[in-house]
From TrEMBL:
Key words of the record: Amino-acid biosynthesis, Arginine biosynthesis, ATP-binding, Glutamine amidotransferase, Ligase, Nucleotide-binding, Pyrimidine biosynthesis
Pathway(s) annotated for this protein in UniProt: Pyrimidine metabolism; UMP biosynthesis via de novo pathway; (S)-dihydroorotate from bicarbonate: step 1/3; Amino-acid biosynthesis; L-arginine biosynthesis; carbamoyl phosphate from bicarbonate: step 1/1
Gene: carA
Name the record gives this protein: Carbamoyl phosphate synthase small chain
Protein species of origin: Microbacterium gallinarum
Top-level taxonomic group: Bacteria
Region (CPSase), start-end ranges: 1-183
Length: 385
């Protein structure tokens, strides 16, 4: 591993002209994306390999990153997805019996340009005040580019709003994981950036998990004779995913039970006829408090979302698209953002956060049981009809 003080210079440039000079970390070069901060003090490997972070330069608010290295057991997907990585103090050594390599080497191998040695607290406070914004990391030869040219490059990058990134992260062909619990039936999972922990949790509840490409049609879903449909987390703007919304309306019209998480929550909202909007700086990290309105319980949950559903927090309301009564089931306690939806007249619900929560917390893992119970009850009703 290269020492921080031996590495090449690097600079982080935000679209408002803010600059932070540090040292290169990971691959050398130029990378662009939306600069966001993640508040988890642990689980950086799971964060880096979460496809929801595609298109984003992730800043870790925890100051010391990399001490446990990287291993071959914990990746949430097939590669690191972040567009760039910002840390204050990268560990100079790897000290964990499970480690198979260093974080620095993993970033280099996957071509992820990063920066270290900057005041990450200052950047976080700036984003919290001004909102998430486009940024660029320039290292190696790119670090010596004229400052005005670097800023121009950042401002030429696309905004996150309006981007559809599903095709970048989804599988190309169907992949099947057989049930590890008592089998219920086939589950169609639309891969918008699904994580391995999600697949494992669904298989443990008795589903043969069919992970399907994001461009699958309603006929492609029907072809596997599913007992239910699941929409995964993923990157991008839900307003730019009209095809996935129309597909979901076909699922709901077929009467199939549905569960969506994160991006899937936003797409359920749009399928029901609700709007979505971009949050100032989003929710990212493993310490977000959410109220389950049905139980009154406050859960500490894992998040990664920059968009949210626009819906009334209190009381039931009618779906503008004719799917009956809807209610907000979960609410974020930091800012009253909608964190879950429940349909009262059809078998469908969703949450904005990640109940699989690798590397934790696991307060919301019960939602997979809630989904299993919904599917079993729906199958029983159809059997007796």
């Amino acid at each position: 591993m290269t020492s921080l003080f031996q590495s090449d210079p690097a600079v982080l440039v935000l679209e408002d002209g803010t600059r932070h000079v540090g040292r290169a970390y990971g691959a050398l070069g130029t990378t662009l994306g939306e600069v966001v901060f993640a508040t988890g003090m642990t689980g950086y490997q799971e964060t880096l390999t979460d496809p929801s972070y595609a298109g984003q330069i992730v800043l870790q608010t925890a100051p010391h990153i990399g001490n446990t290295g990287m291993n071959d057991e914990d990746p949430e997907s097939r590669r690191i997805w972040v567009s760039g990585y910002i840390v204050r103090d990268p560990s100079r050594v790897v000290s964990n019996w499970r480690a198979d390599g260093s974080l620095d080497d993993a970033l280099v191998n996957d071509g992820v340009v990063g920066i270290s040695g900057i005041d990450t607290r200052a950047v976080t406070r700036h984003i919290r005040a001004a909102g998430s914004m486009r940024g660029g990391i320039f290292s190696g030869d790119a670090a010596s580019l004229d400052a005005e040219r670097q800023l121009e490059i950042v401002r030429e990058a696309p905004q996150m709003a309006g981007q559809n990134l599903s095709a970048q992260v989804s599988v190309d062909a169907a992949q099947v994981t057989t049930a590890t619990g008592e089998r219920i039936g086939n589950l169609a999972v639309l891969d918008l950036g699904v994580k391995q922990a999600t697949i494992d949790n669904l298989a443990a509840r008795g589903f043969d998990v069919h992970v399907l490409p994001q461009d699958v049609t309603i006929d492609g879903i029907r072809a596997i004779d599913p007992v239910a449909v699941f929409y995964s987390n993923g990157p991008g703007d839900p307003a730019a995913s009209g095809d996935h919304v129309e597909l979901l309306r076909g699922v709901l019209d077929d009467g199939l039970p549905f569960f969506g998480i994160c991006f899937g929550n936003q797409l359920l909202g749009r399928a029901l006829g609700l709007g979505t909007f971009k949050l100032p700086f989003g929710h990212r990290g493993i310490n977000q408090p959410v109220l389950d309105k049905a139980t009154g319980r406050v859960e500490i949950t894992a998040h990664n979302h920059g968009f949210a559903v626009d819906a009334p927090i209190e009381g039931a309301f009618d779906s503008p698209h004719g799917y009956g009564r809807i209610e907000v089931s979960h609410v974020g306690l930091n800012d009253n953002v909608v964190e879950g939806l429940r349909a009262l007249d059809i078998p469908a619900f969703s949450v904005q956060y990640h109940p699989e929560a690798a590397a934790g917390p696991h307060d919301a893992n019960y939602l997979f049981d809630r989904f299993r119970d919904l599917v079993v009850a729906t199958l029983e009703t159809k059997k007796n009809a």
